[in-house]
């Protein structure tokens, strides 16, 4: 999990772990991260985090959002990027460690049990264990254009949301045998291979191209 360190006039004010998929930044109290300054818009920016990758998006703020001195609309955050909003400097620190799929983290101080040595299995069981198991379907999204072209997002969660809340949001659902996509909200309609996406889940095929307000992403399907 990444985090941001917020400072003003050289004094650190907050250290915020990016523990939620969407964290809003702004002057109003309803934001996840409140920056109390007149030059900060009510709803200024948002950081969306999926696995260990975070994206910063300016919400059409009056005075802009800057990363490493450049004004940005959307930006894929890199380790130690310096974000400037009004009088605030926000440093992004990436964790860079992904959980092993299917492995639950041990709680602090807990003892991890070690399995006792197993005796050789009887012949029928050994034969059954040798039988090939069905391959698990693994999907990923690859951004095809824009500043984030080439970036890939593994689809490891049961549900993955993409887009801008209130404008255009799609949901990709994962099942053992594949993936499906549907539009969750917004008047701007996403497309799959140029065909408008509806609210009913549509099965994704390897190579399908999703278009979210001009951002094109290819669905890739692999097998474990």
UniProtKB/TrEMBL annotation:
Ranges for the FHA domain? 23-72
| Family matches, as CDD domains | FHA
> What InterPro entries does the annotation carry?
Cell_Proc_Reg/RNA_Proc (IPR050923), FHA_dom (IPR000253), SMAD_FHA_dom_sf (IPR008984)
Per the UniProt record, one Pfam family is FHA
Superkingdom: Bacteria
Fetch the Gene3D superfamilies from UniProt.
2.60.200.20
Q: Which PROSITE patterns match?
A: FHA_DOMAIN
PANTHER family, per database record: NUCLEAR INHIBITOR OF PROTEIN PHOSPHATASE-1
What protein name applies here? FHA domain-containing protein
| Organism the protein comes from | Pseudoduganella aquatica
């Amino acid at each position: 999990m990444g985090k941001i360190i917020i400072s003003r006039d050289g004094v650190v004010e907050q250290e915020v772990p990016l523990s939620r998929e969407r964290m809003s930044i702004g002057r109003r109290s309803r934001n996840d991260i409140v920056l109390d300054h007149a030059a900060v818009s009510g709803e200024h920016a948002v950081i969306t985090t999926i696995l260990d990758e975070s994206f910063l998006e300016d919400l059409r703020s009056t005075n802009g959002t800057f990363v490493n001195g450049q004004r940005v609309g959307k930006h894929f955050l890199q380790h130690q990027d310096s974000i400037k909003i009004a009088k605030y400097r926000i440093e992004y620190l990436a964790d860079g460690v992904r959980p092993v799929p299917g492995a639950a983290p041990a709680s602090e101080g807990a003892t991890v049990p070690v399995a006792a040595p197993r005796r050789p299995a009887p012949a029928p069981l050994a034969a059954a264990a040798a039988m090939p198991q069905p391959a698990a379907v693994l999907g990923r999204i690859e951004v095809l254009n824009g500043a984030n072209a080439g970036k890939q997002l593994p689809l490891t969660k049961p549900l993955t949301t993409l887009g801008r809340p209130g404008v255009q949001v799609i949901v990709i659902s994962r099942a053992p045998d594949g993936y499906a996509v549907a539009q969750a909200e917004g008047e701007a309609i996403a497309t799959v291979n140029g065909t408008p996406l509806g609210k009913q889940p549509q099965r994704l095929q390897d190579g399908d191209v999703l278009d979210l307000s001009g951002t094109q992403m290819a669905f890739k399907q692999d097998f474990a």
